[in-house]
Amino acid sequence: MTLATRPRPARKNADDSRSSGLEPPELATKKAPTQLRAVETFERILSTCSELLAEVGIERLSTNLICRRAGITPPALYQYFPNKYAILHELGRRMMWRQNEHLTPWAQVATMRLPETEFADSVAQVFLSTLHVTEDTAGGVWVMRALRAVPSLQHVRMASHEAVTNLVLAAFQDSYPAVDVAQARLTIRLAIDALYAAQELLVDDPQQDPEAVARVMSEMVAAQFVKLRAS
Amino acid sequence: MTLATRPRPARKNADDSRSSGLEPPELATKKAPTQLRAVETFERILSTCSELLAEVGIERLSTNLICRRAGITPPALYQYFPNKYAILHELGRRMMWRQNEHLTPWAQVATMRLPETEFADSVAQVFLSTLHVTEDTAGGVWVMRALRAVPSLQHVRMASHEAVTNLVLAAFQDSYPAVDVAQARLTIRLAIDALYAAQELLVDDPQQDPEAVARVMSEMVAAQFVKLRAS
DNA sequence: TGTACATCAGTGAACGCGCGTTCACTGATGTAC
DNA sequence: TGTACATCAGTGAACGCGCGTTCACTGATGTAC
Questions:
Q1: HSE-up of B104 (CA within 13 Å, CB side)?
Q2: Which among A145, A188, B94, B224 is least surrounded, fewest beta carbons within 10 Å?
Q3: Chain C: nucleotides under 7 Å from a protein CB?
């Protein structure tokens, strides 16, 4: 018989690569895939990760598990991502970006000038449409939860909320230039966080009626916005 | 020389005890400590867990790590808790309970009848006092985050928010019996979730001013409550 | 008030397992002449 | 249009490590007579 098992390769110092557990993990992707096959592998890693996140939760998610499910071997995964956090980072970025996309056409001067009732209706509408973005993505909720749960991933959510705030703030300022910026920014930011919280409630508790939640939250937000206009 | 190393004990079937990864983990505590020394150990496990949660995050938290830091051996921990989730469960329960404690004296008929401005002020006050509860507990924020992140622990947060909702709802109904219950419950629940979201913002972003956040959120909530009274 | 014994509290040492990670390698795709 | 060669994409097999968990055991505390 020829070589059935190869001899153990010499290892320099296995500890070098293992972090002490205190530095944050690398989040950037590594090599970008160029060939078609590679792009498919890259995307399959992402979708598998999303899928598994919903099934086993972030705690039991591992690169080995992703590889097994995606039908590839670990070294293939490591070519593109340094660790599972980088995969989650990419998933989070995409999800946030898709949500923000739905907001851009709403955050216009014309919207900000709407009378209270119409304004509230428009808020309710964007609320429901961004809700659908999360619902339509497999494991979308769990990606959102992972962003919250992992310390090194928090900034993705933060940056996204910050970006949305600036988007809305710009439109608002164009409409009401006299309003105090700090005050406006805070109100907008809190409105956004409250709306996201309401989205989470809907996901966590399927008993709740999305339309009713959208209505109440929009009223709350609209009233505060109108108050802000007059200040 | 006498027995330096003992012979390997026979193991029946190591797989029996290892879960397949799909059933939720047991959350109840095991034996309750009776003697003083045991109570101290029990409490040290809890406080060490809280401490480590803040340092390494839930992802790297392990029973072994807790034992090392707490100065006990694993079997001692396993006497009281079946796994790390049970420890987090207990920590979460305590934190939620302490927060709710601050709310009970507020959720009274007299409060509900306050005029809008005074009502808003009182909301701002409870908001800030519950915020301090989280801040004063070592690793308090991380306990909250763990409750969100771990699927099997979600119900602790949910149950707490539900309980708070009922508390406020009862006081509100006593004051305004004519108001539609479902409508009132939804408004209250969303207000609570929004206030918690604002708390998280303050924790995540130390730039934000707690007083300013408290003020804006309270105004938003108060306005909606007053609208509700008149319906 | 003393002692025998039961229960409580915690130890030391080991286990099997899956995880993250890397190695030398093979096969597929693209490209220069 | 064909071919030699470089680069890209992915494999199979192994590693050291820490984790969850359990064993038989020792020492401390409480209690019945």
A1: 7
A2: B94
A3: 8-24, 28-30
Domain assignments of chain B as residue spans, ordered by start: 24-78, 91-230
Please give the mean pLDDT across all residues of chain B.
90
CATH architecture of A24-78: Orthogonal Bundle (1.10)
In CATH, the number for domain B91-230 is 1.10.357.10
Helical pair A140-149 and B140-149, crossing angle rounded to 10 deg = 160
Cβ-defined contact of B220 to A219 (cutoff 8 Å): no
Backbone angles phi, psi at A40, to 5 degrees: -60, -45
| Residue (of A162, A78, A92) closest to A134 by Cα position | A92
Residue B22 has a pLDDT of 60
Measure in Å the smallest separation between the Cα of B3 and chain A Cα atoms: 33
Reduced to 3 states (helix: H, G, I; strand: E, B; else coil), residue A62 is coil
Look at residue A22 in the predicted model and tell me its pLDDT: 60
- Residue with the bigger pLDDT between B16 and B191: it is B191
- In this prediction the pTM is 0.89
Q: How far apart are CA A164 and CA B206, in angstroms?
A: 19
Evaluate if residue B16 carries a pLDDT over 50: no
Q: How much is the average pLDDT of B54-66?
A: 92
Q: Give dist(CA B184, CA B225) in Å, integer.
A: 8
B12-21: long-range pairs with CB below 8 Å, 24+: B21/A56, B21/A60
